[in-house]
Amino acid sequence: MPKVFVTTIKSNAVRSLHFNLICIGLFFAAGSWGLYWLPQRALEAAGMTGGWGTIAQYLICFLLLAPIALWRWFKGQQTGLNLPLAGLLMGGGIVCYANSFLLTDVMRALLLFYLTPVWATIIEMTLLRQSPGWRRAISLPLSLFGVWIVIGQDLGLPLPQNAGDWLALLGGAMFASGAARVQVSRIEGVFPMLFAFFVYGGLFAVAQSFLLVAELGPIPPSEVWIALAPWFLLLCLGFFLPTNILITWSPTRIGAGLFSILILAELVFGTVSAAFWADEAFGWREILGSVLILTAGFIEVMLAQKE
């Protein structure tokens, strides 16, 4: 067998393995956010409302990353401050998603935010001039139908009806747009996009807080911040930063469309975890919807490598 041919086969195998590992990592990183309701409930019980918790998350992650950004700036490397649009769209999209729960029903917020695959596909076809291929014609309806079966139930068509609904819809569109922006940006390594996510997303969170004063409620007292600071630090180091490394970086390697399908893992993990630890329903709807979402992700990953 010619040496060049063998080398080509090995190179393709390595690329395929690398691609699969990124997809698997993203699936579990996004899926772990389906478990975030567990510490979130504990934080709320301790006096930290969801809205202020979101701001705290961005602030602490920024403080942890700032020394590294400063060191990279002195070295003449990218810090992420040169990625305002990508950081604002992805970071701000998550802020909209988190705050939408303050203004509408949880299920409506989930359903409207997770129209993300639709936005990603539209952006790929119109702005990026990419053809998602016939695989998307299969995976997109499967994933959306799966989402609707799991959380849509009696909500009917996902049409916005209040400010929270619009915020969730905007969040999904921003997040998909941010993933597309990351896909085409020339980013040096993982750190710049991660830092941009927390810098510009954090600024967006602070700005939005002025518009949601009534919904956020009063700022928690200083003793609550002090008491929960170690737990926020632990969450940032053990959860927020590691998962967001993959979430903010992976679109550069797998594309915004596949990315938007795989992040639906959050719904699967969230549904299963709620059934085990919150005694919530887990019947044929949840099983069928989860299977459809997983199947859509499998189709995207497998067929994307053959095009």
- Helix fraction by DSSP (H/I, runs of at least 4): over 70%
What is the alpha-carbon Rg in Å? 20 Å
How many domain regions? 1
Distance between the termini: 25 Å
Fold and architecture overview:
This protein has 307 residues and is mainly α. The chain has one domain (51-304). 77% of the residues lie in helices and 0% in strands. Helix 3 (50-74) packs across helix 11 (222-249) and helix 5 (106-113) packs antiparallel against helix 7.
Question: Brief description of this entry?
Answer:
The chain is mainly α.
Index terms:
single chain; 307 residues; mainly alpha; 0% strand
List the helices and strands and how they pair.
Elements: H1 3-32, H2 37-45, H3 50-74, H4 84-100, H5 106-113, H6 116-126, H7 134-152, H8 163-184, H9 191-209, H10 213-216, H11 222-249, H12 251-254, H13 256-262, H14 265-277, H15 284-304
Helix pairs in contact: 1-11, 1-14, 3-9, 3-11, 4-8, 4-9, 5-7, 5-8, 6-8, 6-13, 7-15, 8-13, 9-11, 14-15
